[in-house]
């Protein structure tokens, strides 16, 4: 079995993660170009997950700063300003963390969601099948009936004011991960004068469902894995499962097809155990 070349892998990451000596991103237009080139990326780096992030492409490979005046936090303004511009798709998607997806790739994610074309009915099916919590149902119905709302008004109108913060936040995350709602703006509400505004996905992106209709789930998974490996160069099967959460059997089946088509190669890591896959450039 071929062995991964660690020097080539590091050089590859330097380019795809936009690490120094590459010039750091310094404008919203450059950020958009970066996201479109990746296909999907995290907003912040996530501990234990190897994936490019907007923060790293702007600041280099360093932890997210606690200080609000850190120059790297310019990314926060770019993200907020873009929420209503429809230049990319933003929400808590991969592992429930802030994810930015290019508009070209968003339909592939949507094709893997529990949505089948009727926003007024899909959530009820999910709820009755036990895939949607009561709090998620209340949040979704409130947005469906009232249109976009900031977080404070949404919680109040959804009759979740007395619910635990964790219950409400879990509902927001669950609905975002399943492409049912997304943040579309920021309101000066609450103690911090900062609150996301949420809306139904199919209202904000009315063409998304139709764009995803012809994409088979197997095609969507293959596309996302091709993009993933084009960013990472090489990865262990455990890392793939950890990020996408499709289940080991489904992931292995998708990978097998990519290996068969010679888009991926099974390989050994010189220092780590596991089932490693790589693109040919890393051998």
Structure in words:
The protein is α+β, with helices and mostly antiparallel strands and 283 residues long. The chain contains 14 helices and nine strands. It has helices at residues 6-16, 28-38, 54-59, 74-82, 106-110, 122-128, 134-146, 151-157, 165-177, 201-204, 208-213, 217-232, 237-244, 248-260; strands at 40-42, 89-92, 98-101, 149-150, 181-187, 195-200, 234-236, 265-267, 276-278. The strands form three sheets. The protein has a three-stranded antiparallel beta sheet with strand order 1-3-2. It has a three-stranded antiparallel beta sheet with strand order 4-6-5. Helix 7 crosses helix 9 and helix 12 (217-232) crosses helix 14 (248-260). The protein is globular. The mean pLDDT is 95.
List the helices and strands and how they pair.
Elements: H1 6-16, H2 28-38, E1 40-42, H3 54-59, H4 74-82, E2 89-92, E3 98-101, H5 106-110, H6 122-128, H7 134-146, E4 149-150, H8 151-157, H9 165-177, E5 181-187, E6 195-200, H10 201-204, H11 208-213, H12 217-232, E7 234-236, H13 237-244, H14 248-260, E8 265-267, E9 276-278
Antiparallel strand pairs: 1-3, 2-3, 4-6, 5-6, 7-9, 8-9
Helix pairs in contact: 7-9, 12-14
